[in-house]
Structure formats: structure tokens, C-alpha cells
Amino acid sequence: MEVEYYDPEIGEGIEALIRPNTKLVHTEAPGSNTFEMQDIRLIAKIAHRHDCVVTMDNTWATPLYFRPLDFGVDVSIHATTKYPSGHSDIIMGSVSANAKHWPKLEEARITLGICGAPDDSYQILRGLRTMGVRLAHHQKSALEIAQWLEGRADVSRVLHPALPSFPGHEIWKRDFKGATGVFSFVLKGEPAVARRKAAAFLDSLTFFGLGWSWGGYESLAVLVNLSDRRIRKAPEDGAVIRLQIGLEDVADLVKDLERGFAAAAEA
Length: 267
Ligand SMILES: *Cc1c(COP(=O)(O)O)cnc(C)c1O
What we know:
By secondary structure, the protein is of the alpha/beta class. It has two domains: about 10-110, Aspartate Aminotransferase, domain 2 (3-Layer(aba) Sandwich), CATH 3.40.640; about 130-265, Aspartate Aminotransferase, domain 1, CATH 3.90.1150. It contains eight helices and nine strands. It has helices spanning about 15, 40-50, 60-65, 100-110, 120-150, 170-175, 190-205, 250-265, and strands spanning about 25-30, 55, 75-80, 95, 155-160, 180-190, 210, 220-225, 240-245. The strands form two sheets. Strands 5-6-9-8-7 form a five-stranded mixed beta sheet. The relative contact order is 0.14. The model has no long low-confidence stretch (mean pLDDT about 95). Pyridoxal-5'-phosphate binds near residues 32, 59 and 93.
């Protein structure tokens, strides 16, 4: 199997990358960690013209804020580990397909012997019942904090699709019904000091835990490693820190982040 990566903002340019043996176009919007938006409907239309299957990782938006099959995606993939679980205690995923691709998906599931554990399924089902109200809270708090970060001199950029300053904002506004609680910002700093500043920032946080996963009730922060990127390489204006904004009071979270910025300034 050969894989070729594409720039998420490639738009119609995706057609030039499709080769005679291309079978599948895998999409994700927004992109993990740096949150680039892509025009899913356009990419799906072009991919279908060349008989490719279109899959999408829709973990960030959840089906409440984006419905991939309505935009031409054939197979929608979701880490239910995140918002459907909501409590950081389950690892599970879901895959949904349109009618055309459902038989093949079902066959693959049987052949591979994939089964979700009953207790985990019960917890995910329970999580789904409160996901709507949790997401509304994550959305509101995360946007408040993103706007606050945008006003700071020690932040060079905030990577959040719901901010009008973000390059993919227009696509987000047109296609998505909401934004969830995960976004990143670039902590201003020359390449030589960026990592040290980020470490000091993260070390001084008390409310935010360190964590790679997200979607739970508690806030998390992590230094994003973009060193394996082939496209959309790491920014040079500072370290990328990803935040997952949980269900705590925004005032407490802001106080914690202020502590982080003070530590970064001294590092
Ligand atoms: C976390 C995550 C996954 C993987 O989920 P796990 O259940 O933790 O393996 C896949 N896609 C995205 C966008 C994620 O954030």
C-alpha cells in the first residue's frame, strides 16, 4: 500500500494527485493538532469522479456538529473514546458507512472479528445521552479562552476554526454547526527557546493535566510534536500547545494559563 499526504487546503488541486491506482481518499477536518479546515464536499466530489472511496475522521466535530455522509463521505470514522465517552475512561471507535459501502464494512468487521466490550458499549451509550449539553459547554468555554489568548502579546497565533482570524474559518462557518473544546495556540518564541518556554508553561499548570487524549470533563494541555509532518510543517514562530477545555469554570482555567505564561516568560 502506498500513501501520499495532501495539503488540507488543496481544494480542487486534489485531482492532480489522484493516480490511476488510487483507491481511497482519507480526510480529516479540522486537522489534528493544527486544525486546518478542508472542503470535504469538494474533495469527495472529485474523489468520486475517479471511483475512490472517501473516508473521514470526524472525531473533533462529532455527528452533532458535522455530518460527513451528508457531504459525500462514504465512511465516517469516530474515536468514541473522546466526546461520546466524555469521562476519559473508555477506548472505543465507531465506523459508519453509506448504503453503498455498508456491506463491505460489515464483511470486514466479521472477518477481522472486531467486537466492542459490552460494558464499554454501555458507557458510550450513556455518554451519548449527555453529549449535546457537554459539547455546548466545551464550545462556549473553549471559544472564550481562545479569544482571550488571541489578545495576548505572548501568543503569536490561535489555531481555532471558529475564530474569524483563522484561515479555514469560512469553511467551518459554512459546513459545521459548532466547534468543540480542542484547539491549539502558538506560544511565541524563537526556535532555540520555544521548547524550553513550552515546558515551563506546561510544568506550572495545576488545573490542566498533561494528556494526549481529550474529550473528557477535565482540561488538558500538551506540547504538540510536529516533527514527523511532511506537509504543513511545524510553525517557526513558537511551540504549538494544544488545549482541551473541559467543564471547569473559565475563570479558574484562565488563572492557570496566566501562571503558565508567567513561567514561560521567565524560562
Ligand atoms: C484520539 C483520536 C483518534 C484515536 O482514538 P483512540 O480511541 O484514542 O485510539 C483518532 N482520531 C482522532 C482525530 C483522535 O483525536
